[in-house]
Design a protein that fits this description.
This protein has 184 residues and is of the alpha+beta class. 19% of the residues lie in helices and 42% in strands. It is elongated, with a radius of gyration of 17 Å.
């Protein structure tokens, strides 16, 4: 694994441990669940939930967010233990953007189905895992690069595969309901 890949893996592990709750599971918004994939899409409701006002957000976080996501007009901000999270939906894809307590960008995460997967990644999966179907994709973006967590399955097998620089690593392999964590 090259140096950049090692940094991206570290970013992913930090991202997964950053909050005390799952990256895409909040009960603070009205939620709509896609029946096929199980992806939860949060819908913003005016005045609903403990959302922050603009003056309650670190200025550096707000500036970074507006520069990185200028197309977003319906963002919701929450204060979390280790900083802030901005939530929004773009083209039916839920996004969470995390900042530390000083307003520095940590990473963004988006959640989508197989149809939205980048073609180069999709081709790798079709070649390496024929017979598997892609259920969901979590895309984690940091300044250092992008990591994908892809959930794939067959009728008797389920895997969580990490993709860094087009290199696949199985993080978890579930066979007949039993988990086997893969250690590198």
């Amino acid at each position: 694994m090259n140096m950049i890949s090692a940094v991206l893996v570290k970013i992913l592990l930090c991202a997964l441990c950053y909050t005390a709750f799952p990256l895409h599971s909040y009960s603070l918004m009205n939620e709509e669940k896609n029946a096929d994939s199980g992806i939860v899409i949060a819908k913003k409701v005016p005045g609903d939930g403990p959302y922050l006002r603009l003056n309650e957000i670190k200025l550096s976080a707000a500036r970074h967010f507006k520069n990185k996501f200028p197309f977003v007009t319906d963002d919701c901000w929450l204060k979390i233990e280790k900083g802030y999270v901005a939530k929004f939906i773009s083209n039916a894809v839920p996004y969470n953007v995390f900042y530390d307590n000083r307003g520095r960008f940590i990473y963004s995460a988006s959640y989508y189905e197989a149809e939205r997967m980048p073609q180069n990644i999709k081709k790798i999966f079709q070649k390496k895992y024929p017979g598997y179907s892609v259920k969901t994709v979590t895309e984690v973006n940091a300044d250092e690069g992008t990591v994908y967590l892809v959930h794939i399955k067959t009728s008797e097998d389920f895997k969580i595969v990490q993709v860094v620089d087009e290199i696949l690593s199985v993080l978890e392999d579930l066979d007949n309901g039993e988990a086997d964590v893969i250690e590198d």
